[in-house]
Amino acid sequence: MVDGDAEQRAPAPATSPAAEEAEFLWELRKYVLLLATLAATVTYTAGMDPPGGFWTDNDGARLAGDLVLQVTYARRYKAFFYCNATAFVASLVIVNLLLVRFLCRRRWWLRALQAAMILDMFGLMGAYAAGSSREVAMSAYILALVILVCSYVSAHVLLYGLTAQVSAPEAPERVERARKYLLIFATLAATVAYQAGLSTPGGFWLASQVGNHLAGDPMLRGKHPYRFMVFFYFNTTAFVASLVTIMLLMSRTVSRHGFRSSALWVCVGATMAGLMGAFAAGSCRSFKTSIYVIALVAAVLLYIGIQATVFFCEPVKNWLHRAGQTLQKCLKLNELEQRNQQQIKLSKGDGDAYLLLKKSRMYLLLLGILAASVTYHAGLNPPGSFWQSDGFDGHRHYLAGDPILHITYHRRYMVFFYCNATAFIASLVILILLLSNMISTQGIKYRALQVAMIMDLFGLIGAYAAGSCRQASKSVYVSVLVLPVFLYVGIHVLVFMLEVSPTWATWRGRVMEKLEQCVPEWLKTLLELEEQVEEEEEEWKLEKRRKLLLLVAILAASLTYEAGMNPPGGFWQEGKFGHVGDPVLNDNYRRRYLAFFFCNATAFIASLAIIMLLVNRKLSARGIRSYALRVALVVSELLRRLVESLLANLVPLEEDAGELLTHTAGDGEARDLWDEKLPKYLLLLAALAAAVTYQAAMSPPGGLWDNGHIGGNPVLLSSYPRRYKVFFYCNATSFMASLVIMVLLLIKRVTNTQPALLALHAAMILDLFGLMGAYAAGSCRRVTTSAYILALLVGVSVYIVVLVVVSIGVARWMKNVMDKVGEKLTHCFSFEDL
């Protein structure tokens, strides 16, 4: 998914079936990592917030924070728990094994990982079947649907193979591109459908009613039975179709025939229809509003079509060209471009500079997606939950749907809100600027975007320190924890550089000598390494490891941030048994909660520290060579796994940046980076927007009524109807626009047409602005605070643009100073004077 240039560094072309299979497995490693990340993400979230919810009060043998489903549906919960836990642990084991280069590059190990991922997918299916419904018939429908979809794809592929005429094989690049884009789309669909299926829109009943429902049953089924059934069947169809698509893409033969016979595209169509239908049924309670949501698809398509038609016009093309030239002339970027082209000729090669530019932009894009996704969710569902009724605490009035923390811990909530909002807006601004070729290129070269992203990550740390706890001592612990992590990595790297102790190569040589004497021959053959793999350049090995570490660190940071904001067990809604807004687990299971808090906080801070170090190529190279970053990441993953096991027991850049500005290939021909990579960037951003908006629609800000009103309806709709409508329409428009953009990007003819690509580019920017509008409406309850968020957009944009311009000016001034100093030194020590 991330290294679009993998084929440039892949092993030599295959000459035998065995070599072809080895080459495919070499390419498969990034897909295995992608799928392991998917499984770990959704299973961790489901483990922290299981279906059915938690008890909210102490009553006899059970305590607040205990699992509802364990009491009312014990067998179903056990099936869900063991399937979910198995998939989670297997995913973490696979990710950690992929960190060991000695293992992950063996053909048989890759095959084993592939089989393990398929088992992971079946574990997800089992957990979904047990947790998304309460009836045996509905669970049986899910399993029958899996068999049905697999049978259809197999029959379609076989029938096509028997009846189709022999044709020339498709280009490998086209198949690789289609597989990559389909995996991104299927990953998005499986993630959001799994989470929405387990956390049904409308919430769950907190108490049983004889003859009507049990605690843990979905409220939507009791109040809107037809709407619930529509949501369930559409969401299940999207989930199963996406998982089947993923498993089929793991097979080279099936995926190739699936592309030719269009079987995979039929699964994609079913996934798309399922997501749209589930969103229309679960995000609202009115038939009229559901029709509006479906009609948004036609509106977005019409808008993109009109925009593409405009870009086809010659006057518009000329105006855009003139505008770009004027901006370059104002910033004097033409001179910089000429200088950098001269520098490239003296550097290590055009091709390497081109690859480094792609890598840097992709890393920043992934980090922006991380920060935007977690801050959007935390802003709409802040820590402490929401009030369920109107009231007065002696100082402030509040309405149902207002954040509890805003009343009970006012200063702490304000720190969390402003840090979180700043990080969210900064992330979206960085993502929008990354879609500009000129600004992003200059920003990466002069480290302006890297500095802005690091400040963004510090904003995440501030929001986490304020929102994850209620005591000043714990907030201080979180804030200063980043220093020991940096200190450890620095000492480890220093010891490695000074060779105080034997290097890793020395230790490895000694161990290999010992194993050589006692390991049987069949095991040596199994672990034998292909010769061509050893020929890889050392620098490219480091780059691949850097990318892998970054992906795993992003996974750990996103999961631990969300778990810290909304810890398992929920929050007290009334002051009868504990302080309102405090974690329930802290009162009923204090030792267990403290273990969770410190392990989760350490994993979060360690992950962010690793990300910050990975931004600099030289620091990350030394950290990777010394295994300091890898040790820190493995410790972070172990702490996260410890958190999961503890809670389970509740139930019995850049030194080389100066080389990055050129857009020329190694052969000297003009090479436009944008035409090649922009579709992937747009696809990733559309996946981000679709994922967070789907989740926000299923669990809207302000919470859901559980008494006094129609159970399962949004509280915000009653307390702040105008604000809720602004949030809903912005969120729904952004979701449908994201799905339409992804579908259009899967069509090769669209991505190869420049005006259509420009139209999608503009639509994606408006999509992100819609995301900002939904955040401004749903994350707060006052007009002044919403205005602050919109003003923050302007402020952050101006700050980053000014930072880029100032960086360019400082670099130009230093260049002139160094040139003058060089001229004077040359004049003083010239041979003519001697």
UniProtKB/TrEMBL annotation:
* InterPro entries noted in UniProt: PGG_dom
The record's keywords, sorted A to Z, are: Coiled coil, Membrane, Transmembrane, Transmembrane helix
Q: Pfam families annotated for this entry?
A: PGG (PF13962)
List residues of the PGG domain.
24-134, 174-285, 357-470, 541-633, 675-781
Q: Name one GO cellular component term.
A: membrane
Q: Which residues form a coiled coil?
A: 512-546
Name under which the protein is recorded: PGG domain-containing protein
Species assigned in the record: Oryza meyeriana var. granulata
